[in-house]
Design a protein that fits this description.
The chain has ten helices and four strands. It is of the alpha+beta class. Helix 1 crosses helix 2 and helix 7 packs antiparallel against helix 8. The structure holds flavin-adenine dinucleotide (FAD). The site of flavin-adenine dinucleotide has 7 residues, from helix 7.
């Protein structure tokens, strides 16, 4: 089962990012940037950097998550996000006896598919064990392991990168498992940085258009549709 925990984060992320923006826009020194800012001022500064695309101040706040109960299929997608740091449980050093697996709901809810899935997993687990027993190193025996194999990973992303991650991975068209993870991560950062992540999520929610093009769910017009309406005016 998916488990996500926000392990550590930069203290007062909303205030710190606003302070970095404040330094850019006003004649204050570093002794004053964190002082005398109420939530309204913080929100104003955060809105300003978001609206103008001046997003680099968001890089000063970072968030570290512990994640487990996810598949290797998920972690492979996750680590494609390059503006982040990762530490994943190794299949070279850790012998998986037996290995836990993530079962997609479409499989779990279909008795025949669930039986095929289970049978295949049992077969793989038995063959993996057999290879270990006859002396094949774990780093080679793991070649048998499937995408369904459960994994654990620690991820650190800064707020800018997280915003991008939430934009593409909380979309209803995103693959179900990484979407579940992105929604859980967003819920947790919203508790500690409510202003920074107030307007986070897919572009249909934050900008009123869909970036999925023909694959969109129809909830919001595509950018192409919006542009053609704009160009006709
Ligand atoms: C709907 C969907 C379908 C996908 N399908 C596939 C697929 O079929 N095959 C596949 O291989 N992947 C696929 N991906 C993964 C996708 O290509 C990205 O690797 C992944 O989403 C990470 O996004 P990113 O590169 O924007 O993020 P990050 O790596 O975190 O980068 C963040 C941003 O930094 C900038 N950046 C980072 N590195 C560079 C660079 N080298 N040059 C220029 N700018 C850079 C870009 O602006 C980028 O958006 C898919 C993703 C989605 C959401």
């Amino acid at each position: 089962m998916l488990k996500v925990e926000l392990l550590r984060y930069t203290p007062e992320p909303d205030r710190l990012v606003a302070a970095a923006a404040r330094l850019c826009y006003s004649a204050v020194g570093i002794d004053q940037i964190l002082e005398n800012m109420d939530s309204e001022q913080i929100q104003k500064l955060l809105n300003r950097i978001r609206e103008s695309g001046h997003e680099s101040p968001m890089e000063h706040a970072s968030f570290t998550f512990g994640i487990e109960g996810v598949s290797r299929a998920l972690t492979h997608q996750l680590v494609r996000h390059r503006i982040a740091s990762y530490s994943q449980q190794s299949q070279r050093y850790v012998k998986l006896k037996p290995f836990d697996k993530v079962v997609p709901p479409t499989v779990a809810n279909h008795p025949e598919a669930a039986a095929i899935f289970q049978e295949t997993m049992d077969q793989i687990a038995a063959s993996y064990q057999r290879l270990l027993e006859i002396g094949i190193p774990a780093e080679d025996a793991r070649f048998l392991l499937p995408n369904a194999c459960e994994s654990k990973i620690v991820v650190t992303m800064n707020a800018r990168s997280l915003m991008h991650f939430f934009e593409i991975r909380t979309c209803v068209r995103a693959q179900w498992e990484i979407r579940q993870l992105a929604l859980a991560m967003r819920e947790q950062v919203k508790k500690v940085a409510p202003l920074l992540f107030k307007l986070s999520g897919p572009t249909c929610e934050t900008h009123g258009y869909c970036r999925e093009g023909k694959m969109g769910c129809g909830r919001a017009p595509s950018l192409e549709t919006l542009m053609s309406c704009f160009n006709k005016q």
